[in-house]
Amino acid sequence: MSEQMEQIIERMKSDGIDIAFFNDPQTVEYLVGFSSEPHERILALILFQDAPPILFTPALDQEDAKASVDGIDVYSYLDTENPWQSIKNLIVDKSLPTTNWAIEKEQLTVAKREALQSQFPNSQFEKDYSKLLHTIRMQKTSAELEKMKKAGFWADEAIKIGARALKVGITESEVVAEIEYQLKKRGVDQMSFSTMVLFGENAASPHGVPGPNKLKEDQFVLFDLGVIYEGYASDTTRTLFFGDQPTSEQKDVYQTVLNAHDTAMDQAKINMTASELDTIARRIINQKGYGPYFNHRLGHGIGQSVHEFPSIMEGNQLPLIDSMCFSIEPGIYIPGNIGVRIEDCGYLDDSGFHSFTFFPTTIDAYQNFIKESK
Ligand SMILES: [Mn+2]
After folding, report:
1. What range(s) does the Creatinase N-terminal domain occupy (predicted)?
2. Which listed site, 55, 132, 204, 227, has its alpha carbon 20 to 30 Å from 220?
3. Which of 114, 137, 160 is the last residue of a domain?
């Protein structure tokens, strides 16, 4: 049984929880190593204080599940069976207490909870273990960090593919298509979110949408993208200057974001709070008068999902700890005019913050890259 599962069972004992029911596919994958998206079917990991865990899957997943887990009983149901009735029978067979349940309130729909309640009318489903899972997942194992480095490698490759594709007149959508096509040909078939490529003023919205805009000389091109590799996400943003004559405003905005990004990367350390790290970057942007245009938190945790705990934001007094993974992504967005963001995700250890991505960040990075590729 994994160390993380043992940690949860210890917690069940101290909380007086008889049964913990996890139905988030990512939780299941995290705890037992079996990955599947059940759609409307039921996939669940059921933990007890003093009995072996049950992995409950749709019948079509049973063989894969058995092959990928160790020391866990796998049971399945057919589409023609009532999964909740099957779960009840499995649990009742164990003759263990069933009064107090912990569930993932962020994942278990009301309908599913009612289905469980109908099978166990005298049980309580009040305890929420969503936060507990977030907390455990914040601290990555060395095996997880290795996967995240690989996911980072492919994010850097994606930026390079995108940079090579740039030319006057190409559209944002065409650059997105090129990136995803080239990655798929190389065996990377899942992005961690919709790839973003935004030209010039279209990048002035932090959640802009790529479309038919055509690239012109001396515009910024904002790439925000990542891939899923072996179940782990990457996420990086580069704002490349396409041309060689940035205006003084373009230079000033870019250098301010870069300075905030580099300073936060350099100064991030264990035991600092998430809020303190946000402030380090935000102060630099405020001092240059762009504060109102940095309208989001400095960063977010990352792992199996592209956004998870911790949130690197003002007011979050959570201390940063060893092996936590998160983004550092300051930005300045002046509506209708200019948008610049620079983002790297990485992990913390005793010697500081270590990025998973390495594409250069200076304003002439695009020019240098093109020269070197020739
Ligand atoms: Mn991000």
Report:
1. 6-138
2. 227
3. 137
Q: What is the DSSP letter of 319?
A: B
- CB of 320 within 8 A of CB of 332? no
Q: What is the CA(329)–ligand 1 centre distance, in A?
A: 7
CATH number of the structural domain spanning residue 38: 3.40.350.10
339 SS3 class: strand
pLDDT at residue 374 is higher than 90: no
- Give me the percent of the chain exceeding a pLDDT of 70: 100
DSSP letter at 71?
A: S
Ligand 1 centroid to Cα of residue 270, in Å, is 21
Which of 210, 209, 177 shows the shortest CA–CA distance to 191?
177
Q: Ligand 1 mean position to 266 CA, how many Å?
A: 18
Same domain flag for 65 and 165: no
CA of 43 to the centre of ligand 1 (A): 29
- Res 2: pLDDT: 83
How far apart (Å, rounded) are the C-alpha atoms in residues 150 and 291?
A: 34
Band of pLDDT at residue 207, cut at 50, 70 and 90: confident
Ligand 1: centre distance to CA 215 (Å): 24
Q: b/e per residue, 41-75, with b = 16+ CB within 10 A?
A: bbbbbbbbeeeebbbbbbeebbeebbebbeebebb
CA of 80 to the centre of ligand 1 (A): 42
Tens-digit pLDDT profile for residues 336-348? 999 999 999 999 9
- Out of 121, 137, 153, pick the residue that ends a domain: 137
Residue where the block lists tokens 């007890």: 48
The confidence score (pLDDT) of residue 148 equals: 98
Tell me the pLDDT tens digit for each residue of 23-52. Answer: 999 999 999 999 999 999 999 999 999 999
Return the bridge partners of 171, or none. Answer: 214
Distance CA 179, CA 371 (A): 20
Check whether residue 352 and residue 214 sit in a common domain: yes
The model's confidence at residue 1, banded by pLDDT at 50, 70 and 90, is confident
The single residue listed with the structure tokens 């069940």 is 12
**Mean pLDDT for all residues in the chain:** 96
Task: Give the chain's largest Cα–Cα span.
Answer: 75
Domain count, the chain: 2
Residue 204 carries which DSSP code?
A: G
